[in-house]
Amino acid sequence: MYLLLADPEQENIAGFFNYDLWFKAIYRLTGFEFGVLELRIFRLLLLFPGAFVLWRIVQRESRSVLNRFEIFVILFLGLALSYIFLPQSLSYNHLSIFFSTVWLYFFSDRKWNFKTFLGLGFCLTGLFYVKITSCLTLGLVTLVKVVIDLFRGELKLSDLFLLIAPMVFLESFFFFVLGDFGVSRVIAALELVSDRTEYSFLNLLKYTTVGLFWTGTVLIPFTLSGYIKKKSKCSMGIRFGALSLLFFVMHLTNTSGEITHFPALIILAFFSYQLGSSFRDGVSKTRLTLVLILFFMPFLIYFGSNFYFYRIATHYSVFWILGILLLISGQQTRVASARISLVAFSFGTIIFVGLWLYPSHTSSLFKNDRSWEFGNQSLLLDSSQVEILTSLEERLVEKEHSKTLFAFANPGFPYLLNLNIPNTPLIWNKEDLRSRISPEEIDVLFYNGFGDLPDSYRIFRLMDSIGNEQFRFKILTR
C-alpha cells in the first residue's frame, strides 16, 4: 500500500491516508516519480531531522551532562527501531512519527510566537494527510493549550489563523494542481466506513485502552522499584517482582509470534524506573509535565489504528527514550554515558536483527539473491517470491492484462507486477472489497483466501490456482 500511494497512476478514492497527493503533485509539476529506492532513501533521511528536533528539546530543556553526539545517536537509533516492524520503505507510520516529533518541538516551546504557531500548523497539516486521527488527537492537545493561554491573556485570537494557514494553502494548491484535495476525500471516506464496526470510536478507544492497560501493568511496579532506595529491605523483592511481571507481560502480549513488542516493553521499564527515581530525588514541575506528555505521546499518535498497540510500539518508543534522557540529565557523566553506550549498542543490534536477519513479513535480506525487474525498477528478492511473481505474470499475459484485482491485504504483488488496484491502494478485508470495488469492475480476481469474499462476488468461478509453500492464489473469473 505504501508504495502504491507514491505511484502517480494509483487511485485513492475516499482515502484516509492522503499523502499520495504530495507525490501526485510532484509528478504533475516535475515528472519525477518516487520508486522503491527513492522511498527508502527518503525514509532514512527523515530520521536525521527527526532526531535533530528531539536533540534540540534535550538541549533546551536541560543542561545535560551527556555528550551532545551521544544524545543525537541514541535518539537517531530510537527512531530507527521502527525498521524492525513493517517495510523498509516510507509509510504513513514513519511520516506520522516525523510530524509528531516536530510538533513536540514547537509545542514544548515555553514562549509561543509566530514561528511556533506556523510550525504547529505545518505539523498538524502534515498529519491530516498522513493519519487524520493523530491530527485530531494532537490538534485537541494543541487547542487545550491555546484556550488556556487565551484565558491567561498570553495569546491573541489572530494567532490562531497561523494554525490553519498551512492547511488552507495546501488544500488550495492541490485543488488547482490536481483537481482533488484532502477534505473531500475524508468526507467520502467517513460515509464509506460509517457502518463499519471495526472503525467505530468505541472500538478504536478499546484498542488504545488495551495498550494503556499493559503499559500500566509494567509502569506501576517499575516506577515503585525506582522510587524505593536500593538499601531498603523490600527493594530486592520489588525489583524481582517487577522483572517477573515484565517477562509475564512479554509472554501474554506475544500474540502474533513476533518479538517487535520486546524492545518497547524494555524501554518502558527503563522509563518507569527512572521516573520513580526522579520522584524520589525530586523533579521540577516543568520537567515532569513534559515527561508526562512524552509518556502519552505514543497513544496520541497510535489512536485510530485497529490493531494491537505493542505490535507497532517500537515506532513510538523514541518518546519514552527522550523521557529517559531528560530524567537522567542530572546524573554523573560516567554513569549516564555508560548507560547510553550500552543502550546504543543494544539498539544497533536489534535494528540489525530486525532489518537484515528477520525483516517484517519477509525472509532474511541475505536470502535475496535473485533480481526482479518491473517498470523502470529492479529489486533483489528470494527465490520463492520470484517464482510466484513469474507465475502471476504469465497468467496476466494469458488474460491479456484484463481488469485485475488482488485480494486480500497483498498490494505488494500488483506493485511488483507494475499494476494498480482500482479505486484504492489496499483491499484489506471483505468489507473493503464490498464497499470500494464493484464486481463488474473486475474480470480476473487473484484470491489468497485470507477471509471470505462478499456475496456480490459469487458470480466469480474458480479457473485455476498457483503458488508455492509461501504464497498461494486462486484465480477466479466472471
Task: Please explain how this structure is put together.
- By secondary structure, the chain is of the alpha+beta class.
- Among the domains are: 1-61 and 77-194, no CATH class; 367-477.
- Helix content is 61%, strand content 6%.
- The chain has 19 helices and six strands.
- The chain has helices at residues 2-5, 20-30, 36-61, 68-80, 92-107, 114-130, 132-152, 161-178, 182-193, 201-227, 235-252, 261-281, 285-302, 309-316, 318-327, 333-357, 383-398, 412-416, 430-436, and strands spanning 370-374, 377-381, 404-407, 444-447, 461-467, 472-477.
- A four-stranded mixed beta sheet has the order 3-4-6-5, covered by helices on one side. A two-stranded antiparallel ribbon has the order 1-2.
- Strand 5 and strand 6 (472-477) form a beta hairpin.
- Helix 3 runs parallel beside helix 5, helix 6 runs antiparallel to helix 7 (132-152) and helix 13 packs antiparallel against helix 15 (318-327).
- The longest helix has 27 residues, at 201-227.
- The protein is globular.
- The two termini are 26 Å apart.
- The model has no long low-confidence stretch (mean pLDDT 88).
Low-pLDDT stretches = none
What's the shape? globular
- The first-to-last residue Cα distance is 26 Å
How many E strands?
A: 6
Largest sheet, order of strands side by side? Answer: 3-4-6-5
Task: Give the overall pLDDT as a whole number.
Answer: 88
